[in-house]
Amino acid sequence: MTPVATVSQVFDAIQQAKAGAPDFCTNFFPVQKKVQNWIEHREFFGAFRSDAVFFYRRDRDFWHLYYCAASKTALEREIATVPELKSERVVLDLVGSEAALSVPVEVWKTAGFNQYTRLFRMARAVSSAAEYAAEQSEMIQYAIAGDSPEVVDLLERSFDRFGEQLPLLHEIEAAIQERQVLVAHHDGKIAGLLFFETQGFSSTLRFWAVAEEFRALKFGSALMRQYFATQSAVKRFVLWVATDNLNAVQKYGHYGYKPDGLVDYVLANRRVRS
């Protein structure tokens, strides 16, 4: 694989794989701003083939894999030509309905990948713009630049780096600058956080966590209510949660989130150990 130099190189490679494709398949739906950020931080690499392309994004001690191929047959053929799929720690996400994912999941399992975890999406429709408007709490504030390392540390202690796409330090720094991270402080420490991304009338709750030693102090509910209160223009809230995280599923349900039918199979090669 080689470093990706420009965003146009990414989109040109996708178009090449897609042009005249009889059965185009992919797990990559690039957002230009994010791809540019990965390139600037030298995190994005590619393995280019005639009718397929594989992109790798560096994340701590492993790689996220994205692919685009002209067909299932082309994908199966080209997988065998990419040595990094066996020599490096690699995970990939396959997102869609259960029915639509059965074929790609089997393709990658045949290539030596196994299911690492499964997530599903939950959505919440807004019933009233003023539902939480009066419940903002002084104990919850937007994170500031100096909070970044502590935010990353709490995320890494609370979530699985292979299965839940944890942001890197520079991504948290950017999110804080854009006022996308709420925090609760207690005794000079960050007791809890809520990281979200809002675009237009839709908002994605990326991560919601409270440090174990502070979970009896109700920071979690205060963070969630503050989040809803600050997003008065949003009409639809969504999030992803691990299927086996029953405690989180129950809590999200309490706030009105319900499964919407999309799932995410996270597959990992044999170099990744759960």
Task: Describe the protein.
The protein has helices spanning 7-18, 32-40, 72-79, 84-87, 98-110, 148-158, 169-177, 219-230, 246-254, and strands spanning 2-3, 25-26, 44-48, 52-59, 62-69, 90-96, 114-125, 140-142, 181-186, 189-199, 202-210, 236-242, 258-268. It is built from 9 helices and 13 strands. The protein is α+β, with helices and mostly antiparallel strands.
Tally of DSSP β-strands:
13
Q: Structural class from helices and strands?
A: alpha+beta
Biggest pleated-sheet summary: 13 strands, mixed
**Mean pLDDT metric:** 93
Helix content: 25-40%
Distance between the amino and carboxyl termini: 26 Å
Shape: globular
% residues in beta strands: 25-35%
Over the alpha carbons, how many angstroms does the gyration radius reach? 20 Å
Order of helices and strands: EHEHEEEHHEHEEHHEEEHEHE
Low-confidence stretches: none
Tally of helical runs: 9
Would you summarize the structure shown here?
This protein has 274 residues and is α+β, with helices and mostly antiparallel strands.
Structural features:
274 residues, alpha+beta
Write the layout of secondary structure elements.
Blueprint: E1 2-3, H1 7-18, E2 25-26, H2 32-40, E3 44-48, E4 52-59, E5 62-69, H3 72-79, H4 84-87, E6 90-96, H5 98-110, E7 114-125, E8 140-142, H6 148-158, H7 169-177, E9 181-186, E10 189-199, E11 202-210, H8 219-230, E12 236-242, H9 246-254, E13 258-268
Parallel strand pairs: 5-6, 11-12
Antiparallel strand pairs: 1-3, 2-5, 3-4, 4-5, 6-13, 7-12, 7-13, 8-9, 9-10, 10-11
Helix pairs in contact: 6-7
